[in-house]
Amino acid sequence: MCGVVGVTGNKNATEILVSGLEKLQYRGYDSAGIFVDQPDGTDYLVKTTGSIADLRKKIGPEVQGTAGIGHTRWATHGGVTIENAHPQFSSDERFYLVHNGVIENFQELKDKYLQGVHFHSQTDTEVVVQLIDKFVKEGMSTQDAFNKTLSLLENSSYAFMLMDREEPETIYVAKNKSPMLIGLGDGCNVVCSDSIAMLNVTHTFLEIQDGDMCIVKPDEVIVNDADGNVAERETFEVSVDPSASDKGTYPYYMLKEIDEQPNVMRKLSAEYLDEAGHPTINADLVDAIKDSDRIYIVGAGTSYHAGLVGKMQLEKLTGIPAEVHVASEFAYEDPLLSEKPFFIFLSQSGETADSRQVLVNVNKQKLPSLTITNVANSTLSRESTFTLLLQAGPEISVASTKAYTAQIALEAILAKAVGEAKGQSAALNFDLKGQLAVVAQGMQSIVDEKNEINQIAEDYFVEANQAFYIGRGIDYTVSIEAALKLKEISYVHAEGFASGELKHGTIALIEPGTPVIGIITQAGTAGLTRSNLEETAARGAKTLSIVKKSLARPEDTFVIPDVDELLTPLLSVIPAQLLAYYTSLNKGLNVDLPRNLAKSVTVE
Predict the structure, then answer these.
(1) What's the whole-model pTM score?
(2) In this structure, what DSSP letter does residue 394 have?
C-alpha cells in the first residue's frame, strides 16, 4: 500500500526522498509528497496527485534540505486530492507526519480531543498530527506528545514518521503492524517501508518491532520499546543489488519478471537441491512438518493460488492432509484445528497484513509455522518459526509472476523433503531436479514466443468485455490465477472456473465472441475439459487451449512441454501471464501500476 521514506543528515535529502519514492511505486499509490528542512529552519512542503514524475516537476531547485520525509498515498480515508496527500501537518504548521496504515478510532479521537480544530483534509492521519500538536501546546515535549498519541490509537496499524520544525534534523518513528525499517548510513540515517528504497544509501538496516518508538538523528538512533524502555535491536544486511530493481531495456517490469522465471527455477534448484537431487531443507523444519497431522496453508491473492497447487504437492508427496485458506477470512473465523497443525504462510513481500494477523493468532497458541517469502527479514519471516526464501529477486510489478512460480517450485521442494524423510515412495521416486531443469527450458521456449502471443492477445482479448479460463484439478487452480492476471492489469472481466461446473450455471455467461481458454495438462481429465470447451464453442465462444505436449492436438493454441503433473502449473501459467501483459499493453494501460491496486497489502 502506501510507501514511506525519511532521511536525516544528508545534504541531498530531496533527491534521496524522491528516488526512494520511485523505488516504492510498485506498492501502488495515487498521490505523493515530501517535506524537507534545513538546520537554519528553512523548509519546504511539496505534494501532488498523480505520479512521482508529477511530483518531480513540482519540486523547484530551491527545494533542498538535510532532512525530510516522503510518502506515496493509496487513498483510504478521503479522495485523491492534494489536501489528502501526505505529509499531513498541524494547524500551526509546526508538525509534519507521514503514515502507512489505518487508524481505527480516528473519528472517536477527533470528536473527543479536537473539537474546534480546523481540518484541511479528510484523512485519519491528520487526526494524529493534530493530536500531537494539541498535547505539545498543553506543555508536553514532542516525544511525550507522540507517545501519548500512540497510546490512544486502539487496534490501529501504523508506520509513522514525524518531524518537528523546531527540531529540524530529528525524525520520530513509530511502528505497529505496518512495515518499517531504519537504515544506518555514513553520517546519515534513513527510514523506509522497504529496504529497496534506500539501497543507494545503505545496506545496513535496523529491525524495529511493533510498539517501538524511535528517535532518528544523523548520528544516532534511539529505540524505545512498547514499555518506554531503551531497547537494543539487531541489525541486518540486505545484499540485493540496487540495479536488480531496474527495468533495464524492458518497457515494463512485468515483462522483465516473466522473462526471469527460467533463471529463478535454476536458482531454486541450486539453492535447495544437492547434486543427487535431494532437498537440503533445514532438518528441524522437515521434522516439524513430518510430525504434524495436518498442514494449513495461508495466503492472499496470487499466493493463495500458489497454495492451492502446494496442497496437491504436499498431500501426494508427504501423505499429510493439507488445507488452503484465504488469509483475510481465516484470521477472524477461529477455525477448528487438528491436534498437531503446521502452518505455511505464502507472501511475496512478507508483509501481507491479513496473513500476519493469522500468524499472530498462531503464535499465541505456540504452534509451529513456516513463511515462504521473497524478502528476508520481513515481518512474517521474523515472526514465524521457520523461513524459506524464494530467491526470485525483487518483484516490482503489481501483478505477481515470478513469485507465483517460485512459490510453487519451492513448495514442491519442501514436499519432496518431507516425503523423503517419511519414506514416501512418491517423493523418493520424484526426479525434481531433472524436472525443474525441463521446466526452466520449457519456460524459456514459451517466453520466446512473445510475438505470437501478442497477436493472440490483440485478436481475442483487447476488445473483449469478459473472458474465462477453465480447467480441472490442478488446471483449475491455474485457471483462477490466469483470470486474476488478466483482470487486474487489463480490466477485462475474467474468471477461472472448474470446467465441470460450467453446466451448473456458469455457461449462462457465455455470449458470442467470449474468449474461453481451456487448460489441459492432466491425462485423467483431458477429454472432459475438451468436451466442456466444445460446449462453450457451441454457444459462440472463441476457444483457445493451453495443452501439455503428450495430450495435444493439431488445433491447440499453446502446447507446453511435458513435465510431471504436479509441476505443470509452472508452464501452463506462462502463456496466461503473457496474454494478460499484451492485452494490457495493447489497450494502452500502465501494465505495472494498474488502477486501484497495490503490490504489498499492508492494511487489513
Answers:
(1) 0.83
(2) -
With 0-12 / 13-18 / 19 or more C-beta atoms within 10 angstroms meaning exposed / middle / buried, residue 79 is exposed
Catalytic annotation on 599?
yes
DSSP string for 68-100: EEEEEE--SSS-S-TTTSSSEE-TTS-EEEEEE
Burial (0-12, 13-18, 19+ Cβ within 10 Å), 316: middle
Q: Do 358 and 177 touch, CB atoms closer than 8 A? A: no
Distances (CA, A) of 107 to 10, 122, 123, 285, 290: 37, 11, 10, 45, 49
Assign 4 a pLDDT band (cuts: 50, 70, 90). Answer: very high
Catalytic-labelled residue, pool 2, 188, 192, 214: 2
What does the buried/exposed string (b/e) look like for 113-138 if buried means 16 or more CB atoms within 10 Å of the residue's CB?
ebeeeeeebebbbbbbbbbbbbbbee
In the residue annotation, 2 being an active-site residue is answered as yes
> Can you state the angle between helices 402-421 and 261-272, rounded to 10 degrees?
20
Angstrom distance (rounded) from CA 587 to CA 228: 54
CB atoms within 10 A of CB 549: 14
Q: 504: Cβ–Cβ under 8 A, 6 or more apart, which residues?
A: none
> Of the listed 134, 175, 433, 599, which one is catalytic?
599
- Tell me which DSSP letter residue 273 carries: B
Q: Which grid coordinates belong to 170?
A: 530529528
pLDDT higher than threshold 80 for residue 243: no
Q: How many whole angstroms separate alpha carbon 404 and alpha carbon 241? A: 22
Whether 482 contacts 509, CB under 8 Å: no
- Give yes or no for residue 74 having a pLDDT over 90: no
**In the β-sheet with 181-184, what is the strand arrangement from edge to edge?**
43-49, 31-37, 67-73, 3-8, 189-192, 181-184, 204-207, 235-237
Cis peptide upstream of residue 87 (ω within 30 degrees of 0): yes
Percent of the chain with pLDDT over 90: 81
E-state strands within 269-308:
294-299
